[in-house]
Model the fold of this input.
Amino acid sequence: MAPLIGNKKIKTAVFISGTGSNLKNLVLFSKKKLSPISIDLIVSNNPKSKGLVYAKKFKIEKKVFNFKKRVFDEKRLLKTLKDRKINVICLAGYMRILSKNFIKIFKGKILNIHPSLLPKYKGLNTHKRVLENKEKYTGCTVHFVSSKLDSGKIIIQKRIKIKKKDTPKRIAKRVLMEEHKLYPKAILKIFNL
Ligand code: GRF
Done:
C-alpha cells in the first residue's frame, strides 16, 4: 500500500454486521500515534448490529445499507465512501458478499479477518468443522478481499492449539482474542510499519 505522507492518516471504513468487537479494537488502535489509519466511517448491513453503538461512543459517522435494493444501495454506498475520501475498508464480521464491481473499485484496499487458518475452512461455522476434523491447530487470518470468498492474498495469520476439552464456543473466544491483536498487526504490515 502507498506509504504515508506526513502525519495524515489513511481514511478507513469498517464494515460490520454483528457485535463489533474487532471494530472497537480497530478504533482503539487507530487512535494510537503509530497507527497509519483513522476510522472515519462505520458501515453495517444490519440496523440491529450491536457494534453500531461504537459510532456514538467514539463519535464516528455510521451508515446502514440493508441491500434490499441491491444496485441502488451499492451506488449509495460507493458515493458515501467517495465523498468521505475513504481509502481502505476493513471488513470485521461483515456478513454480506461484496459485488465484483465493488471489489474492483477498491482493489487491493479491502481487508477481511477470518476465524480459521485459510485456505482451510473458508465460509461459516469454522470452529465446529475444525473440531469435527480433529485438527490440532486453528487460528485466524487477515487477507485482502478478492471476488472469491475468503480467497484473497493472505497478509498475516496466527495459529492456536486446540485443547482436549475445546468446544466451538471456547475456540471462538480464544480465536477472537487473537483476532484483536492480529488485525492491527496486519495494518501495520501492509504499510510496511
Ligand atoms: C470474527 O470472528 C471474525 O473473524 C468473523 O466474524 C467475527 C466478528 O466478530 N469474520 P466481531 O463482530 O468483530 O466481534
About this structure: The chain has six helices and seven strands. The beta strands are 10-16, 37-44, 61-64, 88-91, 110-114, 137-144, 154-161.
